[in-house]
């Protein structure tokens, strides 16, 4: 995406809009395909499968009679089933009355209630499947640590010799036996002061002792989009040499400087691409997870630290990788629900809610950090969209499901007047939420 950003005048806009459109197109296409394919399995005919709204810029009709199209406004999509008035699955009574008995059986509104319930749930479920597939692929691509704690790589530090080698098997650190890489990190965290660490390693069949650099230097691993770090220009891989005039020995030193800044600007000296440069960063007070399921408000800059030493990896079994993918779906859902609950009960501010502008900015910044980060973002947003659609709000899939559930229990659907009122209320709630989230985006940009 750097090529887009370098186009004069419009590069910055394109580097934000294009990733956003790509994310939205993939997530929406998967969501709508879930509706489409399950409806097809249930014998329901789909007349239109659309990515986007408005004027059609491409279309093709398949042998089943479904019109596949891409429209000019890429802010969603829909599947229009036989008998629908539009993409929201409202019944077209005139059209339904003109259908034969066989045709009506293939319409959405003529299908049995359980088939309609399966069809509306299929969209969110497809989003969850996409997220699981993304993180399964990430696990297969990145691998998992080998059985024995083996050095797979490390970051070269300026002016510091690294005695460890790739392939060294770590036996003990600071006198403690090591069973896995988490033990190496725990030994570093247990040191009263950051400094050199004593390693006993197995190399080429023999054991030797070496003294190596501290495992948690002030090394930047990840930069949170729309954060002070992102605005200041920090990048993954940067080594922060000093902050506010204080020489840093560990990532926790950087955290201490930020917490003590009281939100005032901090000059940073960083090592990047073999040269030293300076930046200025202004920490901001933000709501963040406290690690115990809640939130706390503290001054932060939005960076994550990277351990100096990386483990050697192996490709996991497919079922192990799939387990990781499914677990990540659960974690994203749990984190999303926790955040929503905290906003509703006032634990964190409603300004944390992002709208389309904020999501577009996050997409652009994430794309600039690399393809893998962008793919992970697609997985996270896919589950967020799937979860949102499960809420029991009319016009959303969850609202349709509740209406069909009422029909299954009562033996007849709610009256058209009730459904029309519910749809109007649901649409109003969604529009109000979008307006408020967009207001948050604009105020965030202004501030």
TrEMBL record:
Keywords tagged on the record: Hydrolase, Membrane, Metal-binding, Metalloprotease, Protease, Transmembrane, Transmembrane helix, Zinc
Major site of localization recorded for this protein: membrane
Topology of this chain in the membrane: Multi-pass membrane protein
Group of enzyme by EC: hydrolase
Cofactor(s) annotated in UniProt: Zn(2+)
Transmembrane intervals: 6-30, 118-141, 372-396, 417-439
Enzyme Commission number, as recorded: 3.4.24.-
Alphabetical GO biological process terms: proteolysis
PDZ domain segment(s): 195-274
Subcellular location: Membrane
The organism's place on the tree of life at top rank: Bacteria
Cited InterPro entries: PDZ (IPR001478), PDZ_6 (IPR041489), PDZ_sf (IPR036034), Pept_M50_Zn (IPR004387), Peptidase_M50 (IPR008915)
CC terms in the record's Gene Ontology section: membrane
GO terms of molecular function: metal ion binding; metalloendopeptidase activity
Family named by the database record: Belongs to the peptidase M50B family.
Stored PANTHER family: MEMBRANE METALLOPROTEASE ARASP2, CHLOROPLASTIC-RELATED, REGULATOR OF SIGMA-E PROTEASE RSEP
Listed NCBIfam families: RIP metalloprotease RseP
Name assigned to this protein: Zinc metalloprotease
